[in-house]
Amino acid sequence: MTSQQQQSLPVRLHPSNQHPTLRAWTQSHPQLSAAALMYPVFVTDDPNPDAVEPIPTLPGQSRFAAPNALIAHLTPLVALGLQSVILFGVPSRIPKDNHGSAALDPNTPVVLALRALRKHFPQLLLAVDVCLCPYTDHGHCGILTNYDTQALDNDASIAQLANIAVHYAQAGAHIIAPSDMMDNRILAIKRALNNHKLSNVAVMAYSAKFASVFYGPFRDAAKSAPGMGDRKCYQLPPGSRKLARRAIVRDVAEGADMIMVKPGYPYLDVVRDAADLAPDVPVAIYQVSGEYAMLWHGAQAGVYQLKDAVKESLEAGLRAGATILITYYTPMVLQWLKEDQQ
Ligand code: PBG
Questions:
Q1: Is 219 annotated as a binding residue?
Q2: What are the binding positions for 5-aminolevulinate 2 in this chain (predicted)?
């Protein structure tokens, strides 16, 4: 063989692929593990503290009354290795207004849940979604200057979001996760936390949050669909990689401790952008309600086994550059990880 022919020997990948250990060596990212998983949970103010309300659009998921039903639900999961949750309040017995004033009530479901979980599961990492939409009468994520035109008052909104962030941090949240998409809320929240001597509380920015149809089941679960209009003026256009990149860079500059891309599966290029643009903060990927439902119904229809499809989807998120996987499948994945170890 001439050296010319040797040089042109075709590249062969199969030799690196013949054994599980060989395959593990080709991984560019951490393996799927309990530490990567964050479990989104809906918390209600049902007068019956043991109430569990199944959510029809999210098969297998429920809303839990704070604090009893929530603690009962989480106890076996913590035993299985659950390490972090993100809480969503679903208040139904509060007065709603333009400013989302009731979010600052000392006894909202989310605040009751934070206090109780902090006491009951001292090792559990507690993130909390911060947004105005569950507390506003119009259902938008910010304060409006005009109900007819649905124009947002960005400055007033971020001031109120910062108040809510402080309120949740005082109740015991380790991570504040603003999902509202108002401009410059990360800086406003960071400043407010500092001013209240809460600078140890982390902020996870929903930085690249797209105006997605995949939030449908969540709006049902959280009863948070806007009463009029849509969220396209503050959530990102699905085709806009450029705005996503600017949002990521800005939120890191404003002090975000973690950044998030949402939804997950259709936006893995943005996850890779986030990992490249912000290499020094962990990137989270939110596999949202519509993705959960899609994977579920695909399995129901016999397209694949649920376990295989969910694990592949999460693996893809890790490969794209995420460290944190926010998924409603967390309880099932914890169970599967345990089974796989046995
Ligand atoms: C509220 C919020 C939404 C989600 C998380 N926080 C809905 C929205 O912005 O319309 C979606 C989560 C999911 O679909 O699982 N601002």
A1: yes
A2: 289, 328
